[in-house]
Amino acid sequence: MAAPKERESCPSAIGGQAVIEGVMMRAPGRVATAVRVAPDHIVVRCKDYVSLTRRFRILGLPILRGAVSLIESLVIGTSTLNWSAEVTQQCEEQNSPSALHRTLFSLLTVLIGLFFALGLFMYLPYLLTSLAGFGANQLVFHLVVGVIRVCLLLGYLRAIGIWGDVERLFQYHGAEHKAIYSWEEEQAVEVPVAETHSRFHPRCGTSFLLLVALSTVLVYALFDTAWVARFGEFHSVLHRLLVHLPVVPLVAGFAFEMLQLSNRLRSGAIVRTLIAPGLWLQRLTTREPFTEQVEVAVVAIRASLGLPMDGLKSRIEFL
Asked: CA nearest 254: which of 213, 202, 206?
């Protein structure tokens, strides 16, 4: 296990993501993905990775680091998700796509996902609110947009959670949180220990999505008030959307800082109250995992931290 000094230096520096039949964990300097390919067999892929926020000091500044982290998470997460799908399908080497093709496919998937997100969670709320006649007061406009956006988010998460494959993904999401808690609480990163922890985590990406949805109300209300005072009313819904796009990184960065702050101060009563909606939302995006799924998450976090694979029931294979 890691020495106490190492734990103190980065107690909350582990992030993760559920993938197809597995878990990806991202620690400082390394990304590790563990995927179960058989009842007693887990394959692991490790890659060294140093974030741009660490390589370029300016990108590590507050707000800016959140925007950079979001983009990195999208690229790494999508690539890892594609890889896990290949592994679970047990593709033969000669039939698997080349590294270049996988990279291009990952980038294409990210772009499609971004366009879908912009259309569903930005353009549609703007359109509905404008049609309802709430365009005069910018604060009222964005309060209505915020309500619509949160409702769409809840509906979307509820709808995809019905699918069987997504249900499995959500179980691995819960397993990811349990394993991360073991590390953050300075306990042994072992399956029995991880299983005692909650599947809800305040630093989860689901909570981040909710924070982004709420942050847009304040940020865009202020921004639009200043814009209208200087340049006049927006000509159309599309015009408003295009003007807002450059501000998206600012909103994401602001939400990121709020998420990090809530994780550091989560023991306080006020902060616990503020982060409660994010934890409630995780009831839609996590499920209680099986022991075998928790084991995969434990393997992933150990691999990301360079810890030994002692005491595990499954055979571990590094690719």
From this structure: 213
